[in-house]
Design a protein that fits this description.
Length: 357
């Protein structure tokens, strides 16, 4: 007596056989044939004659011919409707109406009745019917593409333009900042150039002012030097005149000395004679100073000659000497100095007039 929980060998074999049948039924049968590409057993080398002979000997071509004679194309109604839905009107189809929808599809494409067969769950067709359906689908796709292409291009351009606008919006602050930076950089450079130019102008103006002040000071200094030289020349002239008067008075007082020479000869044999005339009325006022030898001698002679006849010639000669024009001589160095001073004075006057103009 067997227990309920005990499995026999026959039951176990039966269960394994059923599992194998279920697995085979769930799978799809494929005809697989191993074909050798060449006899040398090399890769990437195919011999067409050798491959065709294997296909013929293996019965593959015959199997294809037999399959082509039947219904080589088979598909479920739902798959057919999904694949060729572009050929139908845009409406929802119920599963119960799939067979009717497939029939309408085939009739709309003008496919002959002998090229397809309606099964319980699948549609069987020949290759001609499938090719005709594919041709109709390509025509519909082409028409749809012609209609959708402008809209698609416009949409893509709008999207691209929107991207450009967004990029411009994002980059505008950076561009403005860069432009502002460049503007400020150029402004700083221009300010530096202007500052240097103004500094140079100030330096030139200061130099011109200093140069003008130096010119004015030099003119005044040269004028002062000329005046000083002229004053020294006048003083020297007066001293020489006094010295000459004293000599003349001394010579006139002594009868043995010859009269003074009316001219004075330079070292370069040039004669310089300065004539100064004195009137008899002014002669008493131009008498030599009291401390001079002529005045002292004259006084002595006058005092000693009162009432005597010997003093008359000396007195007469003194009067004649005073009434005659006096000759005052300058040395060559003094004359050259006075000439240079005169030339400088004339040049400065011309330069001053030109500066004033």
């Amino acid at each position: 007596k067997r227990g309920r929980g005990v499995d026999t060998v026959a039951e176990k074999f039966k269960g394994q056989l059923q599992f194998l049948l279920d697995k085979l039924g769930a799978g799809r049968c494929w005809f697989v044939r191993c074909i050798k590409p060449n006899q040398q057993q090399k890769s990437d080398l195919a011999e067409a004659d050798f491959i065709l002979s294997q296909l013929r000997c293996g019965g593959v071509l015959e199997a294809l011919r037999i399959q082509k004679m039947g219904w080589p194309v088979c598909a479920k109604y739902g798959d057919v409707l999904i694949q060729y839905s572009a050929l139908l009107s845009f409406k929802r189809i119920d599963r119960k109406e799939e067979v009717e929808a497939c029939t309408n599809l085939l009739e709309a494409c003008r496919i002959k009745r002998e090229l397809y067969c309606l099964g319980k769950t699948k549609l069987f067709m020949k290759e001609e019917a499938q090719a005709q359906l594919n041709d109709e689908l390509k025509v519909v796709w082409k028409e749809a593409a012609d209609v959708l292409e402008p809209y698609l291009v416009a949409t893509l351009r709008r999207l691209a333009f929107a991207d450009v606008v967004e990029a411009a919006r994002q980059i505008t602050p950076y561009v403005r900042c860069r432009c502002e930076g460049m503007w400020w950089r150029e402004r700083r450079e221009a300010a530096a150039v202007l500052k240097a130019a103004l500094l140079q102008a100030d330096v030139r103006k200061g130099y011109a002012d200093k140069k003008g002040a130096i010119g004015v000071l030099s003119r005044h200094f040269r004028t002062h030097l000329r005046h000083s030289a002229y004053a020294r020349a006048i003083l020297a002239k007066r001293k020489r005149e006094e010295r000459a008067e004293r000599k003349e008075d001394g010579r006139s007082s002594s009868p043995l000395l010859p009269p003074a020479s009316p001219t004075l000869r330079r070292q370069d044999d040039s004669i310089v004679t300065v004539m100064t005339s004195t009137s008899p009325a002014e002669s008493p006022s131009q008498s030599p100073p009291a401390h001079s030898p002529a005045a002292v001698g004259g006084g002595e002679r006058r005092s000693s000659g009162i009432g005597s006849g010997s003093s008359e010639p000396s007195t007469r000669s003194g009067l004649l000497a005073r009434s005659m024009p006096k000759r005052v001589s300058f040395s060559s160095a003094e004359m050259e100095a006075v000439g240079k001073v005169g030339e400088e004075g004339g040049g400065e006057e011309e330069g001053g007039s030109s500066d004033e103009d």
